[in-house]
Structure prediction request, 325 residues.
Amino acid sequence: MSELRWHPVLEEWVVTATDRQERTYKPPDDYCPLCVTKPGGFPTEVPAANYEIVAFENKFPSFKLPPPEPEVTGDPLFRVAPAAGLCEVVLYSPEHNGTLADESIEQIERLVRVWRDRFESLGARPEINYVFIFENKGDVIGVTLAHPHGQIYAFPFVPPIVDRELRASCSHFARHARCLFCDIVSQEQTDGRRIVCANDSFLAVVPFYARYPYEVHIFATRHLQALTDLTRLEERALAEILKTVLVKYDNLFGFSFPYIMVMHQRPTDDKDYGYYHFHIEFYPPHRTATKIKYLAGCESGAGTYVNDTLAEERASELRAAKGEK
Prediction:
C-alpha cells in the first residue's frame, strides 16, 4: 500500500509505503539480488550475464503507476492522495564489491548519460513533477544492499527542500536580476578558501553554509538547470569532478567514505525555472575518522543544523587529500 498523507503543520506530503517493510535487508554477499543471475543460481533482479549500467523499477517502491487507491479516506484537514510516481534502481557496475569511487571516469561518464536519459524519460511523464536522483552509501547511512547502486524517485510533487531552494532562487532573482547559485559560485571562487577542486565546467566546495563537517556541493559554473542542458564536454567534466571528490573522500581517512549524494535539478512540470541552477550535494555523516555527526534534537526537532567545525578548515583537509587512487 502506498499513499500520500498531508502534514497540515509543515504543509508538506508524507509518503506512507507499507510494502517497503518487506524489502531485502542486508543479504549475504553470495545472495545479492543486484548481482547478475548466474547459471544455475537463484534468479536476481538482473537476468543478464553482464552489463555496463542498468536501471530498472524498484521492487519495493514508495510511488507506483498506476497508484493504488489510498487506504484511508481523507478530509479537509487530513488530506490523502494517491502516491502516483515511479522509483528506479541504477546499478553502477556488475561487480558486487566496490563503489562509485572505484569506477573509471569513462564509466562515471556513462552513468551521467544514464542519469540524463532517466531524467528526460521520467520527467516527460504527465504524472511526474520532479525527478530526484540520489545515492545512499555506507552502513551508517542505513544502506541495506551493498552492491554499488543509486536510486531515482520520480515524484508527483516538488519535494520540500527543492521547493525551498526554488523559492529562495526566485526571490534572489527578483531582487538582484541574478542567479542565486551563480552568485554563490562567484563568491566561493573569489574567496577560494572553501574550494575542494574545480575544472572548466564545475566547482566543488565545502560551502560557506555547510551543515555537515565534510559536506561538499558541486556547482555547474555555467548557468543551467538540469542534466539535459549539459554539453558532451560538460558531461565528461562532471564525471571527472565526481571521481575526484569521491576519491578525496576515500583518501581523507583511509576508508570508504559513507555519504548521501543528491542531485538538485529543475522540476519537470513544464514551468519556467530559468532562475534555478543545477548542483549536486554530498552529506557525509563523519565529523572525524571515528566520530559520527548524528542528527539529534536541534537538527531533527527544530530544523537548525549545528556544525562543530569550520568549513574553511574541512575544505583545506579535502583539498589536501589525494584525488586519485
Q: What stands out?
A: The longest helix spans residues 232-253.
